[in-house]
Amino acid sequence: MKIAIHYFSGCGNTAWVAVHAQKQLKATGHEVVLLQNIEQAFPEQMPTSDVDLFISPTYFFDIPANLIAYFKRLPMVAGRKAVFWSVNGGVSGFSYTHARNLLKDRGYEVIAGGCVEMPDTFLFLKESQLTPEQRRGRLEKALSQISDNLKIIDVLPKQKRENIFKVIIGAIVAFPYLLWGRHVLGLSFVARSQCVHCKKCVQDCPVHAIAFGKDRPIWRTGCVGCFRCINNCPVAAIDFSKYAFIFGFIGAIICAVFLGILAPLLKIFAIIFGFLLGWFVGAFVFQKWFVHFADKSLCLSDRKRVLLTDEEKDL
Ligand SMILES: Cc1cc2nc3c(=O)[nH]c(=O)nc-3n(C[C@H](O)[C@H](O)[C@H](O)COP(=O)(O)O)c2cc1C
Ligand code: SF4
Ligand code: SF4
Predict the structure, then answer these.
(1) How confident is residue 297, by pLDDT bands cut at 50, 70 and 90?
(2) CA 88 – CA 225 distance, rounded (Å)
(3) 112-to-47, 76, 92, 155 alpha-carbon distances in Å
């Protein structure tokens, strides 16, 4: 069978899964086209295949926004078979349902879904708790999840029903994040004074959400939450700022009260809308004019960055 693998990877986990899937498929006699990370892939030049395997990390219970855009750009096909895998830290949430619906809209018949659990790249407010041995154990488990998921490709079964509660909870987290959270998240990042101005973060951001300001990077809206900038900075200069939260929170309260008074009939909607808008404005103001507070204001300073080591990559 000829299989095309499409993937996006923020920090390397999904790339690792895609490469291992390719190896295992080739070893069992399949022909595989590994489309480069979708940042460089042009869907209009897609090769023909019997099955398309889409592999995505899960961020905030959903697939990342740049992958959603990629799915929407795919050329229409008539009943081509597709399989979707979520690469995550244990909770795929709304990812599979969302991906399946988007692929169906492009004419795909989504025949199966799978999960591969990897060491978590989510650093926000928590440190990676895994020891090197636990990380290795998780990678070995991931390898066997990959081979189990690939058996499904050989059999091409009918789709299983998803747990509806998992999907609903996933959607409750995923949609507010897609609509609002991702525009605020990047505005909370800062580069501290140890930044050596290499501009790697600017060049590597998959959605160009970072620009270079006068003496350090500045973040714009539209971050997809991949954490590549944080994890890849050669001097670990990038972090979250508590001040971004303080500015956001103050902005949110002011705006919520103001709109609540202005629109008494629609009070609850006005307050919620005001809160979200005010938070965004507060974070924006922080990012534009107050990032020099950065060095005094970190939520995550000196925490470990979590990328696969060279040894783990070769596993
Ligand atoms: C911002 C962010 C949000 C995440 N949200 C989830 C989540 O909702 N559920 C989950 O299981 N893992 C979550 N993770 C963990 C990632 O899915 C996991 O680390 C994945 O392997 C990352 O793949 P990548 O290195 O290809 O980006 C999150 C990671 C990040 C950076
Ligand atoms: S990658 Fe790090 S050191 Fe390089 S410009 Fe960005 S913040 Fe500065
Ligand atoms: S700003 Fe950082 S976390 Fe956001 S999309 Fe760009 S590289 Fe990823």
Answers:
(1) low
(2) 13
(3) 21, 19, 14, 10
Q: Is residue 311, in this structure, part of any structural domain at all?
A: no
- DSSP character at residue 4: E
Which residue has a Cα nearest atom 3 of ligand 3? 227
Q: What is the full DSSP assignment across 187-215?
A: GGEEE-TT-----HHHHH-TT--EEE-SS
Measured distance CA(163)–CA(270) in Å, rounded: 34
Amino acid at 59: Y
Q: Note whether residue 312 is domain-resident.
A: no
Ligand 3 pocket: which of 228, 241, 300 to mutate (most atoms within 8 A of CB): 228
* Chain Cα centroid distance, residue 153: 25
pLDDT tens, 246-273? 899 999 999 999 888 887 777 888 899 9
Residue at 173: amino acid letter: V
Q: Residue 65 burial (CB < 10 Å; 0-12/13-18/19+)?
A: middle
Residue 275: CB atoms within 10 Å: 21
Residue 67 near residue 182 (C-beta atoms within 8 A) = no
d(CA 234, CA 215): 17
Name the closest-CA residue to atom 4, ligand 3.
223
| pTM for this model (two decimals) | 0.89
Cα separation, 190 vs 237, whole angstroms: 8
SS3 139: helix
In a domain, 213, yes or no: yes
Output the six-digit token pair for 222: 């539209």
Calpha distance 193→151 (Å, rounded) = 50
How many A from CA of 161 to the centre of ligand 1?
23
Cα 288 to chain center, whole Å?
A: 25
Range(s) of the domain holding residue 190: 177-296
DSSP H helices, 33-157, are 65-73, 95-105, 132-155
Same domain, 31 and 147: yes
Pairing mode, if any, of strands 210-212 and 217-219? antiparallel
